[in-house]
Design brief:
Largest sheet: 7 strands, mixed
GO molecular function, one term: acyltransferase activity, transferring groups other than amino-acyl groups
Keywords: Ribonucleoprotein, Ribosomal protein
Helix content: 25-40%
CATH topology: Aminopeptidase
Order of helices and strands: EHHEEEHEHEE
CATH superfamily: Gcn5-related N-acetyltransferase (GNAT)
CATH class: Alpha Beta
Strand content: 35-45%
Strand order of the largest sheet: 1-2-3-4-5-7-6
Number of domains: 1
Number of strands: 7
Pfam family, one: Acetyltransf_10
Protein name: Ribosomal protein S18 acetylase RimI-like enzyme
Length: about 150
C-alpha cells in the first residue's frame, strides 16, 4: 500500500532517513562513489527539504519511499529509495508508477541518478524516460538526467 507521508512526524522522518541511508549506501557501492549527498542528510535537512513524500508499506512497515517537488508544469523526482531487504520486489516500480499517475497533469517529469546506477536507469527507461544529459558533478561521480513528457497540452 502506498500512502502520503508527513515528515513532520519525527518517527516517520527517522524511518525515511534510515531507509534512505541504507539504500544510498548500496548505490554508493554500486557506482563506486561513497560521498553521495543523500548520505549526508540528517533529520532536520530531510524534514526541511520541501518535498512531497510517498511511502510503500509492507505489513505496515515502511519499505520504500519516493519524493518530488512539483510545480504546475514540472514533476521533479528527488529521491526513490527501497530498503535493501525489499529489493527486487517491484516496490520502486510501484512507487514511480504511483507518482506519475497522481501527477499526470504536469507537463513533464524529470529525474537524475548516478550514471553507473544501471538498475535505476533501467527503471526510468522502462517507464518512458529519455536520457537528456550526462554530467560529471565531482571527481568520480557522473549523473545522468532523464525526462518524460506527461500531460498532452
Amino acid at each position: 500500500m502506498i500512502r502520503t507521508l508527513s515528515l513532520e512526524q519525527e518517527q516517520i522522518a527517522r524511518k525515511v532517513l534510515e531507509i534512505q541511508k541504507l539504500a544510498y549506501r548500496v548505490e554508493a557501492e554500486l557506482i563506486g562513489y561513497d560521498d553521495l549527498p543523500p548520505l549526508r542528510d540528517n533529520l532536520q535537512s530531510l524534514q526541511q527539504c520541501g518535498e512531497t513524500f510517498y511511502g510503500y508499506f509492507v505489513d505496515e512497515q515502511l519499505a520504500g519511499v519516493i519524493s518530488c517537488k512539483r510545480t504546475e508544469q514540472l514533476l521533479d523526482i528527488q529521491r526513490l529509495v527501497v530498503h535493501p531487504a525489499h529489493f527486487r520486489k517491484g516496490i520502486a516500480r510501484s512507487l514511480l508508477e504511483h507518482l506519475l499517475l497522481t501527477n499526470r497533469s504536469a507537463a513533464k517529469a524529470i529525474v537524475s541518478t548516478g550514471a553507473r546506477n544501471h538498475p535505476a536507469r533501467s527503471l526510468y527507461e522502462q517507464h518512458g524516460f529519455s536520457l537528456t544529459a550526462e554530467r560529471v558533478v565531482a571527481p568520480g561521480l557522473s549523473l545522468v538526467f532523464y525526462e518524460k513528457q506527461l500531460a498532452q497540452n
